[in-house]
Amino acid sequence: MNTQAHPEDAPVGVFDSGLGGLSILRHIRAQLPHEHLIYVADTGFAPYGDKPEQVVAERSLAVARFLVERGVKAIVVACNTATISAVRLMRDTFPDLPIVGVEPGLKPAAAATRSGKVGVLATERTLAGAKFLQLRDQITEATNAQFLLQPCRGLVDRIELGDTEGTRDLLRRYVTPLLDQGADTLVLGCTHYPLVRAAIEDVIASAGARAVTLVDTGDAVTRQLVRLLDAGRLLRSPSGDAPGTLEAWTSASATALSAAFNSLIGIDPPVHEATFGEA
User: Fold this and answer.
1) For residue range 67-100, what is the model confidence (pLDDT) as tens digits?
2) What is the pLDDT of residue 279?
3) Stretch (H or E) spanning 215
C-alpha cells in the first residue's frame, strides 16, 4: 500500500542503543497492536552512556535519518541518554515528525512515595544531564520529595550480555543502599532496567523491604505516542484481525538480537543488520 496516500499505514520507528527499548516496544505493541513498527538496536555503538554528549547526539540523528528513509510516521527515542543528548536536535531536524522521548518518571514517583524518599536508578549520563537535574529540582520544590540518585555503572552491559549473576550482583550493590536510606519508591531510569524487574524485586525482597513501588515510564511514553498520532490523524485503523507488522535492525549481530527478542519479550520478528552513520 502507498503510505504517502495512506500515511496512517506508515510504521512507527523505535530506537535504543541496544535492548532496553524492548521494554518500551512491549508497551507499544500491547496498546497499539495494529501499528506497523520498526525497531532499531544500535548495539554496535553501545553503550551510549559513556560517550560524549555530542557524539551521542550525532549518532542518534544518524539513526533517526535511517528511520525517516524507511518512511516512519513517528519516532520513539526509547533511550534516556539519547533523549537527553539528541531529542531537541532531532525535533529541529524533522520538525513535522512526531518524536517521543523518555525521561525518568520522577513526577509519578514523587506522587507514589510515602516516606518522601525516592531512589533513582539510571546511567551516569542521565543523572548528570542538565535537563534531568532541572526536572528533579522542580519536582523537589513542588513536592518536597527527596531524590536519591544512584548511577548504575556497568548494569546496561550486564543486561545486554544476558549475564544473570553479574546483573544481580550489580543490582544488590545499587539497590540496597537506596533501601537502607529509606527509599520506598524506585525509579527505573533506564529503559533496560524494566527487563530485569524480577531481579530487582528479588533484591528488594532479600533486603527485607516491603511495599516498594517501582516506576517504569513505558506506559506513559506509549500514551504520549497515542496522543501525538491521534492529533496528527496518524493512528492506523484495525484491519480485520490482522495485527501490525514488526521488523528490526541492528548495528551488531542479527542472531543476537533475534535471541534477545525471543528471550526477553517472547517474539521472533525478522531482524536485519545495518550501519547508521559513521561508527
Assistant:
1) 999 999 999 999 988 998 899 999 999 999 999 9
2) 43
3) strand 213-215
If you search the block for the grid coordinates 507514589, which residue do you land on?
112
pLDDT digits (tens, 9 = 90+) for 152-206: 999 988 998 889 999 999 999 999 999 999 999 999 999 999 999 999 999 999 9
**For residue 17, is pLDDT > 80?**
yes
Residue (of 112, 28, 15) closest to 63 by Cα position: 15
DSSP-derived 3-state class of residue 186: strand
CA separation for the pair 69, 234 (Å, rounded) = 18
Amino acid at 230: D
Show which residues are catalytic.
79, 190
**Helical ranges in 70-189 per DSSP H:** 80-93, 106-112, 124-128, 130-143, 155-161, 164-180
Q: What stretch of H or E contains 272?
A: strand 271-273
CA angle 144, 150, 154 (to 5 degrees): 160
**How many of the other CB atoms lie within 10 Å of CB of 26?**
18
Query: DSSP 3-state assignment of 273?
Result: strand
- pLDDT > 70? residue 1: no
Residue 55, C-beta contacts closer than 8 angstroms, at least 6 positions apart:
none
Of 273, 265, 211, nearest in space to 248 by CA: 273
Write the CA distances from 83 to 39, 90, 101, 115, 215, integer angstroms: 16, 9, 5, 30, 18
**Which stretches does DSSP call E strand in the chain?**
12-16, 37-41, 74-77, 99-100, 117-122, 146-151, 185-188, 213-215, 246-250, 271-273
Task: Please give the mean pLDDT across all residues of the chain.
Answer: 92
DSSP 245: P
Q: What's the distance, CA 96 to chain centroid?
A: 22
Query: Which amino acid is residue 34, in one-letter code?
Result: H
